[in-house]
Amino acid sequence: MTSCHSRPSPDTARLVEENLLTLAQLRRMVAALAPERYRQAFGEHGRHTLGKHVRHIIDHYDALLDGLERGEEVIDYEQRRRDEALEQWPQQAASHLAGIQSRLSALDGEPWSAALTLAYPLDDEALSLASSLARELAFLTSHSIHHMAIIALLAEQSGIHLPESFGVHPSTLRHWQRAPEEPAPPSRRSA
Prior knowledge:
This is DinB family protein. By secondary structure, this protein is mostly helical.
């Protein structure tokens, strides 16, 4: 996209920052994993792995950023790459996440309020929904955090310890920082 519109406002630039922080947290976790842990199957049918959730997050960022780089005004998250190597090899995924962070950082001069259209599949047709870069960045933060919360649950089952803040939305982290500490519950005593 060309940067013929005004530069981003401080509020919308914060959306890029939230995405960068979210991806940095995910990248640190992925980079520290052995491939066996990254590919470990969970669930009755073995469909869930840490890697599949990471790849899914990557796919969404790529769909948006690829579309922007091609100058497209329609964003279609259904047309994802689904690169299986990114769900098999944590170092490759970590490297790809670093690339996404660089691409997001380069959005500094993009037209934040320029009209985008989101293609949303519904049965055999796609709805065309009005959107903007700022709206899609807000979506990507929430979408990533949602999958990171699932990743945290799977990691816990595998004995992987993650920070308490992993998979917690930035708005919740801000709430935790503002909230006064609650008193500890009284200890139970046996009668």
